[in-house]
Structures
1.
Amino acid sequence: MEGVVDEAVAAEELVKKYGDVTAVDGVSFKVYVGEVFSLLGPNGAGKTTTVEILECLRTPTSGEAYIKGLSVKNLGDIRKIKQIIGVLPQEFNAVDNLTVLENVQLAAVAKQADNVRDVLEQLGLWQIRNKLFSKLSGGQKRRVGIAMALVGNPEIVFLDEPTTGLDPEARRETWLYIKNLRKSGATVILTTHYMEEAERLSDRVAVMVKGRIAVEGRVRELVSSHGGKTRLVFDFLDEDAVGVLRGCGYVVERVQGGRVVVKVDRESDVFDVVALLRDRGFEAYPEVRQPGLEDVFLSVIGSRLSETGELV
Amino acid sequence: MFLLVFGTIFGGPAPPNYSLYIRNLDTDPQGNPEPLAAAFIQALNSSQVFDLKLLNPDDPAPRSTGFAAIRILTIPKGFSASLLNNTIANRIDITVDTINRLVQMAGENLPEATRANINQGLSQMNTVKQLFKTEKKPLTLEGSPDDRLLQPIEAIINTVADRFELALLNSTSTIEINTVQTNIRQLRAVDYYLPGYVAAFIMTNGLIGVSSFTAEMRRNGVMKLIAATPLSRFSWIVSLVLMQTIVSLILTAVMIAVGWMVFRIAAVPDLFSLLIILLGTLAFTGLGSFIGGVVKSAEAVTALGNTLSFPMMFLSGAFWPLELMPPFMQQIARFTPLYYFHVALRESLIAGSVSTALIPTAVVAILAMAGIILAAYTTKWRDF
C-alpha cells in the first residue's frame, strides 16, 4: 500500500535485523504533515535505527516506509527524499576547526541551499557566526547541528536525541527552537528518552521498547487512557487520618519513606480530600501529581524510564 | 624544512672535507718536526681533500662525537731519515739500472775498456748505496672498521705519498689528467631530495590526513548528515581528491620555489610531472580514505596511518639513494608504493626523462586505480 499525500511519513511493518539481533521488529506508524511526532523509549529500543531507515541511511530487512509517498527502498525515490528532509544525527558534532558559518555552509553546499543567513538568524546564531565550533557551549553546538539540518528548508526534519547530553537550561533553550520549527510548517520527527521533552514538544508520541511500538497516540489521550489517576502525596499522615480516608472510600497506599498516596478520579476531588481531613482536625498539605507519560510508561511497560535512558 | 636542512648538509656548493688527525712522531730533540715529515704534512694539506688536525705525540686519541669518524695518521720516528735514505738508494738504483740498460743496448759497439770502467763505477755506486740504511718506516692509518670512507682515504694518502716520492726523486708523473666539464648533468643531493620530499609529503597527507579526516567525519556524524543530503558518494570522493590535489600542487610549488631560491634547483614541472603528482595524490588519497572507512576508531586510524607512512618514508629511498642501503633493504624499497612515486617524479621533474619515468608512472597509475576503487567500496553512504 502506498503512502497517502497528507501523510508525511508512513512506516509499515518495518524490520531491521543484524544477524540474530532484531533491532526493529515490525514497526508501523504514520506522521502527518505539520505535526511533531516523538519516538520515546529507552536506549537500545530501536528508535535511531527506525529513523535512519526513514532517512535512507539504513536498509530495512523487510517492510516499507514512505516519505511523502516516496519509497525509501527505491533508488530513484531516495534522491528525491533527500531533497526534502533535514537530519540531525544522534550525538552529532560539527567540524571543530570550522566556524559556525562555515559548518552551516558545508551543509548548504551539500543541499544546494541558499538560506544560510535566515537559518542562523532563526536559531540565534548569526551573531556568533564567526566563532569556532570548538569554542561554543553545548547548547550552541546543538543549535548549529539543528541549523545544518534546517538549511534548505526541508519539509521533514529528523532530530535524533537533540538534547541528550545538554544541561537542563540548554535543553529548555533548545526546546524553544524546536517549537518554532512547527510554526514554520515543517513536520518534525523526534527521538528521545526524555519524557518531559516528548510531553512538551510533541503532538503525538509512540512509545518504543525492544524494537516494537508499545503504544501510540496523542499525549493527552495516552495519559488519560494509560496514565492512571491524579495522586495526592502526603509526606506524613498518621493512621487515624488514613482510616478516615479509607472509610470514605478513597484508595490509600503507603509508599517508600513513609509517604502516603491517595488516588482520586478527578482534579476537583483534591479539594474534597483536603477539606475532609481538615474537618476531622488533621493538617494536610499534599503534593498534587497529575498523570503523565511516566505513568503511561509504568502502566504499559511496567518500568520507569530514567534520565539516562535506562529502564528501571 | 627537510629540504632546507638536508639540502644544506648534503647538497651545498663546497665539496666535502675528510677529517684526518696527524700524529707526527718524527721530530728533533727540540720537538720541531723533521723537514720531510713537515713537507709531507704540507703535501697532504695541499690536496684540499682533508680537514687536518694535528695531535701532539703524547695526546690521547680523540673521542668521537655524534657520527664523526676518527682517523689518525701516524708519521713514525725516523720517517724523514728513512725517506731520505730510501730516496738516495732509489736514485742510485735508477742510475745503475739506466746505465746497465744503456750498456746492454750498446752491445759490441762499446769498447771493452769502457765497459770495464763502467762496471767498476757501477760497483762503487752499489757500495755507496750500502752506506744508506734503507729500512722502511711505514705510516700508520688508524680508523674504525665501520668507517666506510677509510679505504678511499687510504687511497688518497697513497696518491699523495707517490707524488711526494716522485718529487723527491726530482721526477714528475708522465700520466696527465685533463678535467673537462661536460653536458652530462650530475644529480646533486638536493636534486635527489626535492622529488623525494614532495612524494613523501603527498603520501603522508593521504595516508594520515585523509584517513583521519574521514574517520573524524564519520565519528562526529557529519558523514551521516551529508549522506542524508542529495550529495552523492561519488561527489564526496571527488571533492576529497580535489582538495588533496590542490594541497599537493601548492606543496610542490612551494618546495620548488624554496629549492630554486636556496639551492638553485632548476625543476619546472611539465604536464607529465603534473600527471604523476595527480596519480600519486589519487593513490594515497584513495588509500587514506580506505583506511578511514574501515577502521572504526579515529585514534586507531591515526596510529595505522603513522605506522604505514613513517617506515615507508625511510625505506622507500625517498630520503636517500637506494645505493646507500644494504641490498635486502633495496629489495624491500621496491615493494613500497612511495618508491615508484618518487622515482617517477624524479625522472620527470629533475632528469626530464619521460622514457625512464614511464614504468614507475604506470605502477603509480595502477595504485591510483586501486586506491579509488578501495575508497569507493569502503565509503559508506548507508548502513554506517
Note: Chain B has a mean pLDDT of 87.
2.
Amino acid sequence: MTPMEQLSHRDMIDLFLDGQLPAEMRSVFFAALAASEEFQADFHRATVIHAAAHRHAQTLQPPPALTASILAAATPQVPASRTRSGWFHTKALRTIALTAVATVIGFFIGRLSGPLPSITKLAMQSEHAAAGNAVAGQYTTRQAIPTSQNTPTAHTTTAQPKSTSPVALRTPSANEDTAPIPSDVLTAVAVMPLPTPALPVDSSPASLQPLPPPVGHTLEQYSAPLPLPPAVEEPEEEFILSIRQTTPLVLRQQRLLSPLSSSPLNNTMIAAEYRERTVSILAQCGYEQFPIYEVTAAADGTPQYTLRQLLWWVGGGMRVYAPRAEEGLFRTLRPMAGIVLGTSQYGVLGRGELGLSWEVLPHLSVQCLLEGMVHSHGIGTNWEHAEKLSASIGLAFRF
Amino acid sequence: MAINYTLSSDRELYRYLSMPEHRERAFEEIYRRYGQRIYAYCRKILFNTQDAEDAFQNTFLKFLSSASPDREMTNLPAYLLTIARTTCMDMFAHRHEHAELVEDFHGRPDQTVEANEINELIEMALQLLPAQWREAVIMQLYANMSYDEIASAFGVPVTTVRNWLCRGRQRLREILQPYFEERHVEHPE
C-alpha cells in the first residue's frame, strides 16, 4: 500500500487545495465529497481559510524604505582577498587548538580541586588502623595520669584495642600508683605518637605531679586511637552509560551562513565510557541539528551544494576526571574534560568537552558540559567547516 | 552583452552575485522574486511588525554576504527560507519578555471587516498549533512555499512535511469550527 492510499478524506482536502492530490485519487475524493455533508462543510472551511490566508499574504509587503535600505547593500564592492590566512587562523585548527588548551586547563583545575588522591588516603588510613590495633604496649605516653590519690608518680599506660581495653575499667591499686617506675621501663618501650591532644610533658621527677582530671575526659580517651572518618572508596574501574541533551549557543558556517547562531533546536547524544580511576575512554554518538551543505560532484565535475540539517555521527575519544575529593564542595562534583574525534555521514568532526559530573547517587551522575564542535565536509580541496558551541545536560549511569 | 535578469534562472542570478558588475541587478531580481514571501513568513512567524522587518533585513544581508562563486545554488527559495528561519529563531531567543506581540488587523483600508476578523482568528488559531506544524503551515499558506522547499528548509522528508501540513490545517479547522457555525457559513449557497 502506497502512502497515498492511506490518505483520509480530510487529508485529501488539503492535498486537493495544494494541487498535490494524484489524478487517480480525485474520483475517490469527489465521490466522498458528494456523499457527505460533513465532508462538504469541512471542505468549505478549508477553502475559506486557504483563501483568506492567501489574500492576507498578498497584503504583506515590505515597506518601500526597508526595500531601499536592503537593495542599497548590494552596491558593487571590491572582491575580498583570495589570500589564505596562516595555518593557525584556519578555523578548524584554531578550534581544535582552543579545545586542547581547554582540556589541559580543565584537567589541572580538576587536579587542584582535590587535596589528595583517594588511593593515597586509603593507604594512610590502613597504616594508621594497623598501628592502633597492634600489640598492647605500643601506645605509650609519658604524661602524668590523674589519679584519686594525688601521689607524685609517673605512668606509662598501655593502649589496648578499644573493644577489649581494660584500662578504662580498671582502678589502679595503691601500690601501682605509688611505686616508682624504673627509668629503663620508660625507655625500653617504643615511643610512638598517640593521636590524643598534646599535653605538656616533663620527665623530671619534680614535675611528675598528677594533673587535675579534665572535665568530661576519661582515661579511655587518652588511650584509645581516635576514630577516623569512613573511607570514601574510589572504584578502580567503572562503566558509564550516559545520555545528554544539548542546545547550541553559537553556530557558524564558514562561507555559507556566517554567522548563523543561537538556534534553539535540541540535539541528543549517547556515550558509553570505561573509566579507570581518573581517565576514561569513550564511544559517543549524536543526533545533531547542524545546518551544513553537503558538497558533491556533479557529472561535469562542478561542486553541488545540498543543504543538510540533520546529521548522525559516531566517534571515540577520552576524558579526564579530577580525582575525587574527600570533603568539601568537590566531594560529589568532579570537573571533567574530554576530546572526541568522529565522523558523520558527510564528513569528519572533532569535539571538545569541558564540564562537571555531579555524582548525586552511588550509581547516578548528572553531567553538565560545555562543548565545542567543528565539522569539516566536502570533496577534494573544496572543504568547508561548520562550528558550534553548545551546552548540554544529561544523566550518567555508573556500574 | 546585456543580460536579461528577469529571464535568468535562480542559479544564474546567484552566480551573478559574485560578479561586481552584475551584483546589484541580480540581487534586485532575487529580492523581487522572493522578498514578499520571505517578508510574509517573518511577519507571521514573529507576530510583530518591527521584529519582522529586522529579521527580514538581516536575512537578505546575510544572504548577500554569504554569496560565493564556488557554490552552485540548487534551491534558492529554500536557502533564503533557511536563513530567514534561523534569523527568526534568533529573534525569538533574544526577544524581550514583555514585547508586544500584536498584529494589527483592524483599520486596514484594503480589507473588509469580515476579512480582518477571520485573519485575526486564523492568527490566533495558528498560535495554538504545535511549533513545527505552525511553521510549516505559515510557510505554505503565507510564504507560498512548495512542499519540497519546506522540506529542504526543515531538513526532513517531503512526506513528513505533507503530514505536518495536513495535521496542522485540520487542527486549524477544528479550532475555527465554532466561528463558522456561529456565522452560519457552514453551507454556502
Note: Chain B has two domains: 8-100, 111-189.
